[in-house]
Amino acid sequence: MNNSWFLARRLLFWRQERRKLNRSAVISVAGVAAGSAVLILSLSILNGFEADVWDSLLRFEQHSVLLPRSLQVDARAAQQTLHAAGIITQPYAERKLVVQSGENYRLATARIVTDLAEHQAALGEAIMQNIPYPLSGDGVIIGALLADRLDLMPGDEVRLLSPLDISLAVPRPPQLTATIQAVYEFGILNFDEAYIFIDFNAAERLIPRLSSYAGLSLVGTEEEQERLLPELIDIEEWELRTWETDHVDLLTAMRMEKLGSAVVLFLIILVASFNATSTMVMSVMEKYREIGILRSLGASRRFIKALFLRQGLLIGLVGVCTGVGLGVAVALCQMAYHVIPGPEGIYAASGLPMELRWIDVVVVLVGAIIMSLGAAWYPARYATSIPPGQAVNYEK
After folding, report:
1. What is the pLDDT of residues 308-361, one digit of tens each?
2. Per-domain boundaries in the chain
3. Are 351 and 340 in contact (CB under 8 A)?
């Protein structure tokens, strides 16, 4: 450690007369450490919640879907073209259906999938109740809230009606009797009440001309493959939708929540920095004579200014490294061992969700150090304005 760093440490942390630690400096360091630790943990919790939501969405949603813009689009030809280029696709469709159980009716969106059994397996832990395959008839998977509204359990039968397919020739909507194969629960958005799942074989008997409405879901599509789509098909005939575009409001809301939380929690570090400013001003006043002696011995204004800026940097470095180290340790421990329980009924399986992202750690480190340097700017300028002759003769 060179002389300037040694002097900065001695002038800040020690009271020369009593040989004791400067408590105000220690409190400033503790404030920066507490703010940094809380910020790291809060961002980790928000990241963990975001990751859980994305995981649920990706199990529920198709990553990318091609939907025809008109009924004249040849989906089979497009599927063959994409398959020849190595892009795997599956038929995909959605349709509004009425779910009837006794005298109760509910309108829901039917997500029509290729294989209901495979889709049930893909839903994983979201499946609450189910009956074993094979079914004697057509099956359907419904959400927990919809099941509660209609008082349904796995194994019960429901009638599905397609009101959009009423015509003058057929004034009554097509109907299909199906068995509740499973009940799922995601707990996000309105999925548990608004969506049901049915396979194409059953849906084709309920919905006339279903193939005309069906699109193509791109299985395991990468960004590079998506860029190849305009070269393989007439993109004007198709609409490309991704789960990000379908839920852009949710994505924006969660990003704004994270940004707002980070700004508010940075205020803790800012308050600690203000405390550091008062601590360093008191340090300048206490070391008034010593500063005058240094100036008389040839120390330049630039040296004195750098001396007190280093004090601010010391507060920032010691505080933020301590706080970030503590926050990272707690986050990693929670990610590995789930020692902190989450809200009952939401995160009971894995505890409070946390996900540590190193970009957040870097932002907290840099932000806290910049704030600490900013807090040292005024005391540093004040110290450089002290007249050497007057300071040397100053009596405390």
Report:
1. 888 788 888 889 999 999 999 999 999 998 888 876 555 445 678 899 999 999
2. 3-57+250-392, 64-241
3. yes
